[in-house]
């Protein structure tokens, strides 16, 4: 019997029909999809003991408390620590996927000199040479750490300048530093006791301060209530996320925050709605009205609302002396629910400017946001864990990534109490990285080590015997048996919190309404990470987790 | 016409045999565990009746999974019997202090997050509902490795069609979804894929 073309077609048709009722296509589809998840270049968590460790986020100065799920010694999952009173379990979307950042393609893996691969030895030699030839400027992004102390020690030994990129929260407190003589880093906002907040563009519900701090207060006291215990009035030209969720949103013309603050203060003082009798702003209500685009009646009504539920606190997005003066008029300085002093031992910092003249070398720490770029003729040594794109740095030096560095975390910017916490290096980098402090030690060995300063600081906390240690349980420092025990608890993820200091004499008089504008807001902000280094799950997590309020609730 | 139908039927039958008989044999390869471990023998001889006695939860609620060699050593610090398996356990693992690299039948991909505590303690499920009656067997189950995915056949289940399966046969996502749907427990993507 001859096998014809027709037979072949009939056989093939039968085989094709038979194939779809076998597991072959369906099982192959399933298995290949799983196989594609396990390609060798896709990082896989190792098999091994699973444990949960406590730590703190170091991506920005806010230092949110973390629970880190570790598998065989490697972090594989991040969640917030609900028992931390400062952040109360909340994290920003970036932190939830931050353990992936160490594997990001933009990770800086080798020393680069003007685009070419170089070595640590060459970088160290170049910096040592530059530091002997002329002045050095060191720029820090998270002041107050043990590493920051080493930078300052290096600066004092080598006649270098130590400068700091201040967060918007700290910049908004700089006016009080000038008037009261208390460093801005020693001041904070007592949000826990405030009833009315008037925010001049500060994104209160978008991570201002610590992500968990205000959002929790707002959720407990204000969300969904027509007459909330906590009133947030957002003054902003655009309907931002914070504005859309605030109790009231008032739209004014851009760059007229100072005029509105002056207009409100004038109404408060002229109608004697507050105890203060001055300083009277030079701007009239009509002028404030024409500048801001708000009618005089609207400004008048706003002033009435501000004194209806006190204490009232005005918060600016950056350095704005007029908003600071409005707080003085409202009597919100040094009192509960106002601007309060958190510590008596802080030092003032010189803010970093983009333009740096007369320096031979500039060293930028990895804590400085990537968007902060200096305009200088000096040789720039920049530490970074991730390459954020184009940079004017001559030297790009790989720094430890997320949870790869032993460090300490001082109070979050704007915090109402002094805090201190420690983060151990939970994981090890896969290539040679150095911190800026280690790099400086090569040049100036006498500046010490971060661990030594951390020991000293823990001993100081123990000696002062104030505040409490918060972990799964709360323990007063006065009950700690030794500084070693205290430090041990802190390495295990506890946070020390001091008591708030209410100093009603913080600022007793203000002679005249400020006329000078605040320092221009630098391009960088506290956590402006370029999208290129976002972990891929961040946006997905934000959308699907309860960090993003549901549309039903928002529209309610 | 008859001849065409015959050709169709032969082709149909050929792929049926290929798909249901040859394909599973080609897809899976058999692997040996490091040594023989008999759940039933341990239950009968040592009186262990609860899975949790060896597959315990840690103090923090984390599931410890397969017990460490230290747990085995609490009874087998020295050889108790004369079996080859016990000799391997004592000489290769207990005395040198090495962990046993068991081939885990229920091993899931790394992107799956599963809490035993939630399912056992909160939902009240039994171990058998997912793992079947493996804990009562008197011989070592053959570990069938999927050559493509790299996971055990226990994930797909032993029935290639996935119809009429025994309880605990299969641990695919659809099995989780079916159980959750039956119990009206809603979990989004991020509930299991962190």
Description of the structure:
The complex is a heterodimer of chains A (about 550) and B (about 190). Chain A has two domains: about 45-160 and about 355-500 and about 535-555, Rossmann fold, CATH 3.40.50; about 170-345 and about 505-535, Dimethylsulfoxide Reductase, domain 2 (3-Layer(aba) Sandwich), CATH 3.40.228.10. In chain A, about 30% of the residues lie in helices and about 15% in strands. Chain A is built from 18 helices and 24 strands. In chain A, the strands form six sheets. Chain A has an eight-stranded mixed β-sheet with strand order 5-4-19-18-16-6-7-14. In chain A, helix 8 links the parallel strand 9 and strand 10. In chain A, helix 10 (about 255-270) runs antiparallel to helix 11, helix 10 (about 255-270) packs parallel to helix 13 and helix 15 packs across helix 16 (about 485-490). Chain B is mainly alpha-helical and about 190 residues long. Chain B has a domain at about 100-195. The longest helix of chain B has 26 residues, at about 1-25. Classes of the chains: A alpha/beta (about 550), B mainly alpha (about 190).
TL;DR?
The complex is a heterodimer of chains A (556) and B (194). By secondary structure, chain A is α/β, with parallel strands linked by helices.
The CATH architecture of the largest domain in chain A: 3-Layer(aba) Sandwich
In terms of DSSP E residues, the strand content of chain B is under 5%
Count of beta strands of chain A: 24
Biggest β-sheet strands, sense, barrel of chain B: 2 strands, antiparallel
- Give the DSSP E fraction of chain A (strand runs of 2 or more residues): 15-25%
Could you state the order of secondary-structure elements of chain B as H and E? HEHHHHHEHHH
Oligomer: heterodimer
- Low-confidence blocks of residues of chain B: none
Query: What gyration radius of chain A follows from the Cα positions, in whole Å?
Result: 28 Å
Structural class of chain A, by secondary structure, is alpha/beta
Q: Give the helix tally of chain B.
A: 9
